[in-house]
Amino acid sequence: MPRPFRPICTRPVATLALCAVLSACAVGPDFETPAAPDVASFTPQGQDALPAGGQRLQAGADIPAQWWRLFRSDELDRLVRRALDASPTLEEARARLRQAQQDLDAETGGRMLPSVDANLSAARQKVDPSAFGVPVAEPPPPFTLYNASIDVSYTLDVFGGNRRVLEGLAAQMDYQAHELQAARMSLAANVVTAAIRQADLAERLAATRELLAAQTRQQDIMRQRLDAGGIALADLRNQELLVAQTRATVPPLEFQLAQVTHQLATYLGETPAALQTPPLRLADLTLPPDVPTGVPSALTRQRPDILAAESLWRKASADVGVATANLYPQFTLTASFGSQRTGAGELADGVNVWSLGLGLVQPLFHGGELRARKRSAEAAYDAAAASYRQTVLDGFRQVADALRALQTDADAYAAYDDAWRRADEADRIAAGRYQAGGISHLSLLDSQRQLLQTRISRTAADAARYTDTAALLQALGGGWWNEADALP
Question: Between residues 131 and 311, which one has the greater pLDDT?
Fold first, then answer.
């Protein structure tokens, strides 16, 4: 953990000269990378104790950089790559990273190297020697004074204030780099989730329309039977209610499908009208049989949001050093040399003016401003530390939630799959009995309705397994560190 707030160079004034020569001490805390949490698993039961149906959780296995390829869909891979190439969100993140890099370069040159400026001027002057106690019979006429000089200035970084500023800017650059990685991984996960949800809604909508058609046919038969006196009016009204309820579920599904399609277009950097990609089918995807879960203790070095929070913490630490250094003296070396002549053609004759200087500025009274700013920086440091710890806790919670979701998804899918298989078997039996004249057409339609209803539920449960697998891989960091051009 970072060290307490204490100046590193606090000797008496007699040592200031030595500090000026060495320029090697820096006040404020020295930030140290937080130690990884000592955890052996993500859940109380251990991730190995969470079987996920046909999936196997591989503890310790590393996550590939292109983790979405685990679903073995070329079309899904193309969608993700299109988004990574065209997303305005990533363009913004890259621009902010470039901005942070240039800010660091600018401040490095301005603070760690002397500034050198060339001056060239001409001034019309008149001098009265009697004003200096030199009596003359006739004052000299006005003349033009030409000046060409080189001015050099350098502020000694005795207490490390400049180095702390650069440390903070470097931390800000790291923060933007991690934000870029977080944006990339979030975008990939969002595209995968949107594509899976689009496929889920498309299949559920098609099945719902089939169910509505079957229920409508069943309603027509019941109306005929009512006219023949075979059923009561209440039975027909109940069927009409069922048809109306099923019909009412179609518009929301249509809207949700349109909405997720529009969202997918946005991820791909296109307008909704420009997206021509047809929805995926769940059958085109393969549920990863082996899901890598990494090492729990490595999560804090893999999740971009945790690394970004650490960078902000490091910047807050550097800000404390800057505020502390502002309480101490500042030493500035200046030098100037040049030529002053009364004729412009004489400027190149040689150097005839020069100066060397050492300036010291020691804050004495600023109304308590400087110490208040130091206390403010320390409070910001404490806030950044707390925010980092909260981000770590949230990261572990998200992984645990995703692991538990895989378990419940597997259980739900197994139950719905069993119900669908039973309904499918019942439908085949009903079809055989209908062909043999053992049951009515109404009974056959009822068995088809039950099959379609269980199919809709099974499709939703199947889609949940895909989306929660993607959520787990994202929560584990997304494997960005395995990219060939991964940012440090």
Answer: 311
